[in-house]
Amino acid sequence: MTRQCSQARRPFSRLRSRVALGATGGILSACVASVALGGTSVPAGASTARAPHASSSVQTVTVWTDSTRLPGFKAFQLSHPKIKLNIVTYSGDANGASDLQTKISLYNRTGKGWPDVVFSEQYTDAAWASDSQYHFAAPLGSGLVPSSTLKGFAQGSLAPCTFNGKIYCLRNDIAQDVLWYNKTLMTKFGYSVPTTWAQYQALGEKVAAQHPGYVIGTAGDSFSQDVYLWASECPSNKLLGTLKVEINTAAPNCTRMTKLLDPLIKDGSISKLAVTSADFAKQYGASNHVLMDVGASWFGEYIFKDALKTPSGEMAAALPLTWPGDSQTGDIGGGIYLVSSHAANPKLAAEVAAWMATSNTYQKTAPTYPAYKPAAAVWLQSVNASGYFAQNPAAVFAKSANQVWSGWSALLFSTDAVWADTVVPGITAGKSLSSLLGAWGTALKNQAQTLGYTVVSS
Amino acid sequence: MAFTHRAPSVTVARRRPRSVAGYAFVSGYAVLLIGLGAAPTVWALVLAFQKSTGSGFAGAGNFVQSFKDFRFLPAVEHTGLYLLIWLVSLVVLVVGLALVVHTRGKRTSTVLRFVYYLPGALAGAASVLVWLFVLDPAVSPISFLLHGFGWTSFNQVIAPEHLPYVFAIMAFWTGAGGWILVMYGALNNIPSELMEAARLDGASPWQLALRIKIPMIRKWIAYMVILAFATGSQLFVEPQLVSQASGGLINPTWSPNQLAYAYAFQLNNFNGASAISIDLLVLGLICAALIVVRTGLFEAS
Predict the structure, then answer these.
(1) What structural domains does chain A harbor?
(2) Selected residues 123-142 of chain A with any CB under 8 Å from a CB in chain B
(3) B contacts of A14 (beta carbons < 8 Å)
(4) Which one in A121, A192, A296, B42 has a CA-CA gap of 20 to 30 Å to B272?
């Protein structure tokens, strides 16, 4: 899942994890110290295989997890007393953080210290982890995880894990975008739920005129591109082959969306704030002024219930908005499990990862939509057990899980981070999205070329 | 550091024990200095001239590569502006406040010194966290002030053009207190006969400050600028933490030091990272040399 959901639930956990980052990863001395430790004699990414532990009755597996997935690993420990989990909690690489990559490159230089199993909130981490420079993630298809298990994952959900035909991670959850709306308010205002982006725009203009102060979306998030431009099939990070990527933010599929959104941002029906921010919760959440919001399947619990405190029995989910002739959607996050290629017992490590991603014991209690189909079926049965939603979102979730456009690839850098520092400040300052597309494209291209990609722009 | 100015006035009769104790005190620092300062610097020098694709002499290759990087110039510009704001405010306010403290009565001055020093008691990262709350209009105790500037959201407060100021405020808040104490100590070291003579000649408090006190603590000010320049040009924690807390609204390579970090951990290029570190080291040394020469810092007066 979800780079945002853990702090949406507990606003301070974000800060806490940052302290840890600052203390461990930050400061030049850390880089310099690492330089001193590593030396040039150990080439980065050298696969210094650890000698297998002397076999004993209890085997230890070191796992790294964010706090949201912690109960899952604890559940594994309870049901597998013969395996000893050494659980380490870290930031989960939320919000485009790079502490996992930092730590792994340090371990690569020292030649020891790697965790055996890692959960990351950024599915894009699989890109560098599987890269030959890092040589961290082990390919899972070749016997580590049974192919019958791999076949059980939702269609396309392992695509971000797949490089050169090999699968390097197991997807924990799918974070498919749906249209969230406040059913009570919509009925009160006499509006019908839009099904197309054109209807969405028309409704936004109506809201601005008839009920100013209410919003139908936000544009200030670091993941706003995943909400709008991914759903519009904008070719901004489409991998064409090994180290070859298409970046064309001037394509009609990009501009059709920004042209549609700009008037709504201008008239205030789409807020310039981040839906996850304290500012937004204060200005729109407390007064229950969020009429609609396009967002991930996890928004229901994390954003509306926990962060915005929308009252029970009001929120509902509708199928993703469509463009004429196509009905794709975006995705905000979706966590992954990586298995270390340095694990003393790769089979055992893979077993832990597979259990987390697929077992009903954990996944049916997980806060996010499971990527593993059998687990998702069980999860959906209880999705509205608490009766929070105005109507059961199960059918919408199940259908939209297969609608995520596969044209957005995991690259060696975080495209969300590029969006966050090139586009979001512009929106905050009142610039139009359309006018920022060029700068966004240039920044993506520069970043990609630095990392060795050949960039194609049409 | 706050106590170093007292050292010359201490006279101890017993010589031998003192020198042994001296070495003992210095040894801990020396070990850390060599282990975490000098050795990594030498290592960085070695790496900076080696090829990133395996071993071999790279000449100036790593330096040229980092200069040509599209992120290098913006990072230098950001940090340059930040340094300008920070150094000017540091010199003016630290010296000003130290002079104010120095003219107050004993009790007031003790209280003021304590208050100035207080923020410095928080470690770097912790103080940035305090500012994350102070600068977020939704939770800030000074939100009225932020609203007064027309800023209603955290995103507005940390707009790119505000950042050099924001980081300068953070750095000042954490770092200035210690320097005020150092300057206060330096002011106390001015011979009282000199001040007395000036007063008898009819010097006003204003003239005393400008003609006597500031010239007398000039070397301390130079010393402060050298150290502040070095720490300021190595800015890392502030942009890194604010960026993370804002969901990445600040460029992850805002400062050259962050760019070095990105080279090491995103590009897996420790040689390029070392080259940028060496750039910063050289810059700091040049600045220090200039100030030392211009102010005669090391000349015995």
Answers:
(1) 5-174+333-381 (3.40.190.10), 177-330+392-456 (3.40.190.10)
(2) 133-134
(3) 244-245
(4) A121
